[in-house]
Here is the input.
Amino acid sequence: MSIIEKEVIVKNLLTKSNLPATDYVINPYTGCPHACKYCYASFMKRFTGHTEAWGSFIDIKRCSKKIDIRKLSGKTVFLSSVTDCYNKYEEKYRCTRDILEQLIPADAYVSISTKSDLILRDIDLLKQFRHLTAAMSVNTLDETFRSDMDNASPVVDRLHALKVLHDNGIPTVLFMSPIFPYITDCRKILECSHGFIDEYWFENLNLRGPYKPVILEYVRSHYPQYAEQYRRIYSEGDNYYWKALTQKLSQYCRMHGIQYKNYFHHSALVQKKHDSVTK
Here is the structure.
């Protein structure tokens, strides 16, 4: 697919966040060539005026104003919430690297989440942070399924990147997201990676908007044995699968001394953060 590239001028790169675990987010790009079929960030088109298909355009943000790191003291900063800061165009435009160079002196807690092993390019910078975690999204060990879902790095490359980061003293997170019911083998992912992962984050597949029928049709055609279960979960609101999986993951992680965070109830966590701020 041909990607439409456009450089845009923005006034500020730092945005206050509604996410439950972070104070600020930085999105160096608008759009994402990974083109994940389940990507919630496609809603961004409503605000940017893009009519192109999600995954077919990338806006490269240019900002002459330096990040005010004074306001970040003791705060959490997340790269990135509606794009992948290490998408393939980062190799050309180096927006994320420039941002990291600005953030190094900040007394902030920085988290990076990506699906690309391009993050290894910046190990020299990552090692200079006092408080930083590097998260890699992995929701399958099946490369065929992975390639059906996104255009990001192969699974083996993501796991390799996590190991290299870990070996270089950088705290690692495996973000198991989104977990596809009956398709994502959570236990196998845990077993093959726990030696170089400091913490796991779990997030469920949340189907909404225009990509819901796309995913349901994919399951019907590629995993027909699970079509009825998906209908119950995503059309009837049956939460049994997620309740049972929550219990299994909690038991396994506690038994093996694995640190983890569960984001299955993301909307409730967002509301909890909102309530704490408004009190």
The first strand starts at residue 4 and ends at 9. The first helix runs from residue 45 to 48. Confidence is low (pLDDT under 50) at residues 268-275.
